[in-house]
Design a protein that fits this description.
By secondary structure, this protein is of the alpha+beta class. It is built from twelve helices and 17 strands.
């Protein structure tokens, strides 16, 4: 099983993640992780903090000569902004006298509930850890996990479907085209017309001192039939994916496949009909029309497949061989330049909420974080199914299963 824990504060010296369960023999380098850390930092609507930080990871354990050795992998990301916050975030009690207390909680943030829960009179103790800066750790962990998944031809992409009420209107794009277009856009948007409108909306919100939320979509391709299970509630893969996405700061809703649109259709309009194609060695040997673009690679070699994917690749908590599709709703960021009304926790006076440096819109970055947390759940389900201590052992188990599926 893959397990990880993160530590560190937004303006502390560094962020740290300890990742356990990565098998031995996986090729991994710091540059592989830095690519995803950089993807998390870009995006139209990001704030000044992203211009200060240039996230780079340092692997301090679990890797030798470019390969994992089976022990926990430790990932450390330095905070460049720490230089300006040494006294404010110092571990020394002597610095408390020169620190500044925050006493006006921000609506929509963890400030007030967290201060009451942990008995703090300074809400910096809350916001430093509740900050989305923590997700840099999860993206680093996800980057390692994605390297593992690629060993088995499982890929993870994301793109933005909506920002500030502007939705994309692009049909019949292949998954490859979605991935390419998303990476070429600083809004991770595959629809040029929608992207222009989103930019205008973000600019308008920034001028007003406001913020915008939206919807991103994560797509997993190459996952075999049989990951996850219906046998216990907490092992259903769609439930685990939903929990992972909801754990991202500012995420308030998740759907798999058609999601809430299921409520507006009848059963005959939503369930993915099942087809079968006799096994062949090469697609060229298939007579007649080729399968749909969305058909899983294994189905092209023969086996069961679907022409639609309304289920989002999961039925009964188990992958069915189709691409896994999950969407998440991100609320507008609650830190606003023109603050909402709040109450000072000391004086009980009605005042504007505290103002911290923040973004106008971070939906594209949230998509990259979504890739990471979903990839972790897929990798965990994969290891449950094909477990082993080394890449070679897992690959033997996986290949035997694929042969079984192709001849079922």
């Amino acid at each position: 099983m893959i397990r990880y824990i993160t530590a560190g504060e937004s303006h502390g010296m560094s962020l740290t993640a300890v990742l356990e369960g990565i098998p031995a023999g996986l090729n991994i380098a710091e540059k592989d992780i830095d690519i995803d850390l950089a993807r998390r930092q870009v995006g139209y609507g990001r704030g000044q903090r992203m211009k200060i930080e240039r996230d780079r990871v340092k692997i301090t354990s679990g890797v030798r000569w470019g390969k994992t050795i089976g022990s926990p992998v430790t990932l450390v990301i330095q905070n460049k902004d720490w230089e300006k916050w040494k006294e404010e975030m110092s571990t020394s009690p002597q610095c408390e006298a020169v620190g500044t207390r925050l006493t006006r909680p921000r609506p929509g943030h963890a400030d007030l509930a967290g201060a009451i829960k942990y008995n703090h009179r300074d809400m910096r103790n809350i916001l430093e850890r509740a900050s989305a800066r923590e997700t840099a750790c999860r993206v680093a962990v996800g980057a390692v996990v994605k390297c593992f998944l690629r060993e088995f031809c499982i890929d993870v992409i994301s793109h933005v479907r909506e920002i500030g009420g502007v939705t994309i209107d692009v049909d019949n794009l292949s998954l490859e085209e979605i991935g390419v277009r998303a990476e070429a856009s600083d809004l991770r948007c595959v629809d040029g017309d929608a992207e222009r409108k989103m930019r205008t909306g973000i600019d308008d919100a920034k001028t007003r001192g406001d913020s915008l939320g939206g919807v991103f979509e994560v797509i997993i391709t190459g996952a075999p039939i049989g990951l996850g299970t219906y046998a216990q509630w907490d092992r259903k893969l769609d439930g685990r994916i939903a929990q992972a996405l909801m754990s991202i700061q500012a995420i308030k809703g998740v759907e798999i496949g058609l999601g809430f649109e299921y409520a507006m259709r009848s059963g005959s309009q939503v369930h993915d009909e099942i087809y079968y194609q006799s096994p062949v060695k090469d697609q060229k040997e298939v007579s007649g029309e080729p399968p749909e673009k969305e058909v899983h690679l294994l189905a092209r070699k023969g086996g069961f497949y679907r022409k639609t994917n309304n289920a989002g690749g999961i039925e009964g908590g188990i992958t069915n061989g189709e691409p896994i599709v999950a969407r998440a709703v991100m609320k507008p960021i609650p830190t606003l330049p023109i603050p909402l009304k709040s109450v000072d926790i000391d004086t009980k006076e009605s005042l504007g909420a505290s103002v911290e440096r923040s973004d106008t819109c971070a939906v594209p970055a949230a998509g990259v974080i979504g890739e990471a947390v979903v990839a972790i759940e897929i990798a965990n389900a994969f290891l449950e199914k094909f477990g082993g201590d080394s890449i070679e052992e897992i690959n033997r188990n996986y290949q035997a299963y694929i042969n079984y599926v192709n001849n079922y």
